[in-house]
Amino acid sequence: MARVYSSTVVAAPATTVWGVVRDFNGLPNWTKFVVESRIEQNMEADRVGCVRNFRLNDGGRIRERLLALSDYDMYCTYSILESPMGVENYVATLRLIPITDDDQTFIEWTADFEATPDREDKLIEDIGRNLFAAGLAALKSRFAR
Amino acid sequence: MSGSVEIRRSTVLDAPIETVWQILRDFNGHESWHPAVTASRIEERDAADSVGAVRCFRLVDGAYVREQLLALSDRETSFAYCILEAPMQLRNYVASVRLRSVTSDDTCLWEWRATFDPPVSEREKLKRFVTQDIIEAGFQAVRTLLSGENNIRTREATVAPPASIAASLDAVAIVLTRHGGPEVLEMQRLLAPAPGRGEARIRQTAIGVNFVDVYCRRGSFDLVTPPGVLGMEAAGIVESVGPGVSNVKPGDRIGYACAPPGAYTSVRTMRSDLLVRLPDFLSEEEAAALLLKGMTASFLLHDVYAVKRGDTVLVHASAGGVGQLLCRWAKALGATVIGTTSSAAKAEHATRAGCDHVILYARGDFADAVMRLTGGRGADVVYDAVGKDTFEGSIRALAPRGHLVSFGQASGDVGAYSIDRLATRSVTLSRPNYGHYTDTTEKVKTQADRLFAALSAGLVIADRPRLYPLAEAAAAHADLDNRSTTGALVLIP
């Protein structure tokens, strides 16, 4: 089992940031690596169990199922159903925590998955840096004060 | 506006998670960074990272708090704890701390949550207290700690051996270097060890000086072998307690009057079972002056012989410390009190202490005087701590079936005495030993409660003692040696 973990601080209140990231169909709105996305079977994007089907800017297609969504604790958890990355049992969580001190937001993105040992390090690097860290950096610059 | 309160606060610290976790992970380490905490230790000698460990600490306002570690995770960089005892009404208080790494700039998020059930009237006040004085003050303190590199290193050095927290405390003590005059008393630095099972460590604030200390100093009583520490009576604040102690807790104001000697010190570690908690109306100075004499008077008047209304009571040396207590208390119990003294000046003290009649030894045979004052009947009980000079007369001063209570021998040993002579009055003779009335928690509590109740009701009075700095213990002994003082003497560490 491999783990990817990336986090940052965004200069905006948590409710504001949550308004952007809670949309399970909204990756194209705030990341640079997702170019289009849709929710399968015409479901609402906040219906737990729904599947998002999106295309990366390198052409790869990924399908992910929403496993949990909490407006109270401000996190969502999802699993990969299909992807070109060659990962198994991939479960990720995107979590927001209000920083009460200065009304900013802590965001962390975690993924646990399995892969063949020879590919593990490369996947951790790719997902951690090119997806998670890049996504969080985009969010950070979007709200930069 | 009732029900539980949940407080969630968080902050980002400009340091790697490992650095912050090293500071927060030590459940006993908060005394070195949290501004509200002064002294903390882990009970039962557990390690600070044993789940279930209890930390006992003092807040800066002097109140004591006990908290138990409920969970600790190095993987989640988190811990949770609850309050076991606190002066505030923080019922069902559970708190958790969690650190998360901010990977984008190698800093750290610190979350601190607390839930509790406050009384409605205290709700806002307690919310503010926990939010500001505990959580946000803690955030700020660690932020300050991290802002100076030197501070971090100092901190790491102090946290390294957690066992050192429960170490000895420095004390200054008066040591008996050899038997002799007041000059054999020397001030020295000693260590008061952490309390073991059944023990308490006391920060002493007032220490009673008694004749028994003089006898020990001279070597006439074999209670202290030089080098050793004198003193059987003191009062102060419990600093910490060892395992198995239930009669006192840290922060309690306590006093004691018991063997073994060792009271002439600023900090003392001793068995806790003979400590008594002091009532609010009694100062520590008064307690240190009163407990030994007061508990003595208590059992002499109630247990050795039970003084009742209408009794005639003869008290020798009635202007002395115990003498005055016996006179005042016996009078309050409804007795007619006759006192003896050696001088007219002392007779005034005795009269003020409640004696109906005062007899001067110099004016003839005191037994005859008692017979005259009682119409030839005699006293129901005689309290005699003079010994050799008064013993014979005391028997003659008794009414038939009277009770002679011999509890000291200031003038010397009574010597061989034929018990046949007791038959002249069918005398009951008691030679009580203080220890036999005060050697268990229950017995001490009986005497102390009775004494405190009598004080509170005004039956006895706690006189203001004469105070000496602890360093001048030799001067206090010199004054006691040459009888240049009246009233109690107390040393102040």
Would you spell out the secondary-structure blueprint of this structure?
The complex is a heterodimer of chains A (145) and B (493).
Chain A: E1 2-10, H1 14-21, H2 27-30, E2 34-39, E3 51-56, E4 61-70, E5 75-82, E6 88-99, E7 104-114, H3 117-142
Antiparallel strand pairs in A: 1-7, 2-3, 3-4, 4-5, 5-6, 6-7
Chain B: E1 5-13, H1 17-24, E2 37-42, E3 54-59, E4 64-73, E5 78-85, E6 91-102, E7 107-117, H2 123-147, H3 149-159, E8 169-176, E9 185-192, E10 199-209, H4 211-218, E11 228-229, E12 233-241, E13 253-257, E14 267-271, E15 276-277, H5 284-304, E16 312-315, H6 321-332, E17 336-341, H7 344-352, E18 357-360, H8 366-373, E19 379-384, H9 391-396, E20 398-406, E21 428-430, H10 434-437, H11 441-456, E22 466-469, H12 473-481, E23 489-492
Parallel strand pairs in B: 16-17, 16-19, 17-18, 19-20, 20-21, 22-23
Antiparallel strand pairs in B: 1-7, 2-3, 3-4, 4-5, 5-6, 6-7, 8-9, 8-11, 10-12, 10-14, 10-23, 12-13, 13-15
Helix pairs in contact in B: 5-6, 5-11
Outline of the structure:
The complex is a heterodimer of chains A (145) and B (493). Chain A has helices spanning 14-21, 27-30, 117-142; strands at 2-10, 34-39, 51-56, 61-70, 75-82, 88-99, 104-114. Chain A is an alpha+beta fold.
Task: Describe the protein's architecture and organization.
Chain A is α+β, with helices and mostly antiparallel strands and 145 residues long. In chain A, 26% of the residues lie in helices and 43% in strands. Chain A contains 3 helices and 7 strands; from the N terminus they run βααββββββα. A 7-stranded antiparallel sheet of chain A has the order 1-7-6-5-4-3-2. In chain A, β5 and β6 form a beta hairpin. Chain A is globular, with a radius of gyration of 15 Å. Chain B has 3 domains: 5-166, Alpha-D-Glucose-1,6-Bisphosphate, Chain A, domain 4, CATH 3.30.530; 169-282 and 462-492, Medium-chain alcohol dehydrogenases, catalytic domain (Quinone Oxidoreductase, Chain A, domain 1), CATH 3.90.180.10; 305-436, NAD(P)-binding Rossmann-like Domain (Rossmann fold), CATH 3.40.50.720. In chain B, α6 (321-332) links the parallel β16 and β17. The longest helix of chain B is centred in the N-terminal third of the chain and has 25 residues, at 123-147. The A-B interface holds A 5-9, 97-102, 104, 106, 108, 133, 136-137, 140 and B 8-12, 100-105, 107, 109, 111, 136, 139.
